[in-house]
Sequence to fold (241 residues):
Amino acid sequence: IRSARIYNVSFVRAFDALLVHAGGSDEALEAIDEYGVDDICSVRGRYTGETFYRDPDRQQYGIEHSLFAVGELVEKSAEELDYRLLHEEDYDDLYGLTFSDSAEDQCTEEASGIRITYDGGKITSFTYDPDNGLYSGEQFGSVYADNGEETVYFKNILVMNADTYLQEDGLHLTIDLTGNGDGFFCCGGKYMPMRWYRDSEEDCFHFTDEDGNVLALGVGKTFIAVQQVGDYSGTTEFFSD
Fold:
């Protein structure tokens, strides 16, 4: 669990979600308070019980890399903080995503492997497993795993290209998550170009194909990778067996 930035708050508002974090930039904390974002925060004490813990084995990488949360206790904290745990009745109209059991049929190119390289050299990669029809993720030489044990699999990988630039303080990035952009949708070992748009911070994200048709996601977990374009520039590569 890391500190929040303004783009984390933007994503939470877009998906009517809870934000779990450890403090944050002044900009992010002000936005959380201004917009009434339901947040669970280890620094500001917005949690109950033993929701957060530090892994001593991870502190060799820096204290900021050692904070974890227990999923069941996050939910318990949300209940005790009297946060709304269900979407409003009009959620499907306002935020609803479209899902399909055959979402991979939209894709046209092979993507048994995906490598996302960010400006600065950090790499996140995904490998498709045809036996379960899902992607596993890897970074820093380790597979994404729940509590370091159970591999986390994803049905969909969305790569959203978004304009990224350094703020005047020279410390924090702005990622423009309104307007429109392009990217890629990956499912079933294949990918396709896609488009995204969002009219304002009060709007949700809308995903379409290049012709403007609504994109259907596969049923299951989705990993959204925000790729840098603009002042910062990364690369997204696809591989086949």
